[in-house]
Amino acid sequence: MLPIKAQVSNPILQKVEIPTDTIIDVPQVAPVPGSNPSWTDPQKTRVLPDSLITFRDGGIKRFCVRNKQIDTNRDGEISVREAMQVEGLSLMSFKSFICIISRYDDLKHFPNLEWLHAGSSKADTLDVSGNKALKVLDLSDCRALTTIIVAKGCNPEIIMPRNLYDGKEPEVIVKE
Hints:
Radius of gyration: 16 Å
Number of domains: 1
Mean pLDDT: 75
Protein name: Leucine-rich repeat domain-containing protein
Distance between the termini: 36 Å
Shape: globular
Structural class: mainly beta
Largest sheet: 4 strands, parallel
Number of helices: 2
């Protein structure tokens, strides 16, 4: 099988090549009612790149499927392959979805993410422990954050929120 090649016109979203016959190890995903029970394996789950992701936050899914550089086959779903191709993501790109994002745990589906602008949300926790390639984490518009969780060994540049609701910077927790 040939690797996927994609043209990128938006510098915020970058792509990596993933051969179609590759089996990918993905981190554990919290169970979602009606989802495939193999996703709840306490270790890693092996999936084919064309497996579809079950999002817990509808706002992030809507953002991704409306962005044709993420939903590259335009099927209204995001596959593991499509998510693994994303290296940079700005959730500010579609301003109509900013207030709809209530949780950020779906970011774990983007393991090659190097740059993230988390946009604006009322979420109090941002867990990017599944994003071990992260180099820049822009939280400048996340004023309600109280906790940021990063992976051990991952030391991204964190741009802290401006004008925090309670005046305190979020606590940064390193997850083993």
